[in-house]
Design a protein that fits this description.
Layout lengths: L13 H10 L4 E2 H11 L8 H13 L3 E8 L2 E8 L1 H26 L8
Helix pairs in contact: 2-3
Amino acid sequence: MLKRRTNPDFLNGVPELLLLRLLSSRAMYGYELVQAIRLATGGGLEFGEGCIYPLLHRLEADGLLASRRETVGGRARFVYRMTSKGRAQLAERVDAWERVTSAVRLALHGAPHVQPE
């Protein structure tokens, strides 16, 4: 039986990018973000809570996110929102991602007979 791997090595940085993008539109709590990533990617990417919560804590420690504690139905949860520093970081990361994906796309689908001089 094949084990499904949800976080291949080439996805380094992708969960952070998706968290910042999703939180740029509205505040959300951790499990909500796990579900939002799955929905936003059409099920193509899934990151469990064990991946997402440490990233949320790190992004908050770096000043990119802020959180507040809410009690809902007698249960406490932390809701995360983007900071202005986080918005600036998102813009930089989106730009970098676009450059990388464009270069990889070109290498994979570009001129197949290009040879170095």
